[in-house]
Specification:
single chain, about 300 residues, alpha+beta, Fructose-1,6-Bisphosphatase, Chain A, domain 1, 2 domains, 16 strands, about 30% helix, binds 1,6-di-O-phosphono-beta-D-fructofuranose, binds magnesium ion
Length: about 300
Amino acid sequence: MSGDDVIEAVFEAVAAATPEIRESLVGRRRYEAGENPSGEQQLEADVYADQLFEERLLALDGVASYASEEREGIVRADGTSADADSTKGKTRAGSGGDGGDGDYHLALDPLDGSSNVKPNNVMGTIVGVYDEPLPAGGDALVAAGYVLYGPLTTMVTARDGRVTESVVHGGERHAATADLALPDDPTVYGFGGRVPDWTDEFAAYAREVERELKLRYGGAMIGDVSQVLTYGGIFAYPGLTTHPNGKLRLLFEGLPIAAIVETAGGASTDGERSLLERTPEELHERTPVFVGNREYVERAESALSE
Ligand SMILES: O=P(O)(O)OC[C@H]1O[C@](O)(COP(=O)(O)O)[C@@H](O)[C@@H]1O
Ligand SMILES: [Mg+2]
Ligand SMILES: [Mg+2]
């Protein structure tokens, strides 16, 4: 199986699981299941989606391992697992012992914005396809995609320098926009974190942006980034005075979303450099995230360096 075929099979399997994910929410909307490795409350829906994707994706030829925001360690296709500590600071040479025959390693946020399930607002699924054992960096990210569970189910994928949006119906993708690009005249912004926890530098930047763009913030990164991809603008979950690395996870959220936005002609930063230049030291490492039109990303970088 060629690399392209494996990536296609991964996206196809993610799309095929979406009717079951939507259906699963009916009975799993309110029940809390524990905490994830980042110390956040998990819903039963988070756990269900994680298990479903693990099962479906590890069954694909060419997939060596699976990691997700909802579990501590990595599961390999050969049935072995590695805990998060044993992956810390690992050397990235070769893939021997990292999952058997497959060349691809998947990092998923099974349900992004799952706190939106209770109020019945949008949420997503994020997938990053890496050609090195996890935790790998932007240079090893060969494809990325997300599903948005909104009034429609849509899927956006980035690979080979192109971003495609599809409508998913009955678990199958129907191409809607073959070459998605960020609009040149940005109109929306969405910033996460409590305003009192913003740094002075970020607050000053936010004041400027507020005067130029209109607020669109829904509490699921995928929904907020979809606003930016559609209308142009900037999404940020900045470092906070209380949490300098913000909330979002580099491997599961920051890198795939940066790859999608950059491929669509936009830019990303952690405040200092493109997220795609980063390699996480740890599986669940957090990072500030800024994605959107280049002008707004560059202005964020200069505001934060003051
Ligand atoms: O509730 P807040 O602080 O606004 O945080 C919202 C952010 O948290 C997230 O929900 C975190 O993702 P998960 O739901 O996958 O943990 C992002 O999607 C979103 O951008
Ligand atoms: Mg998330
Ligand atoms: Mg999640």
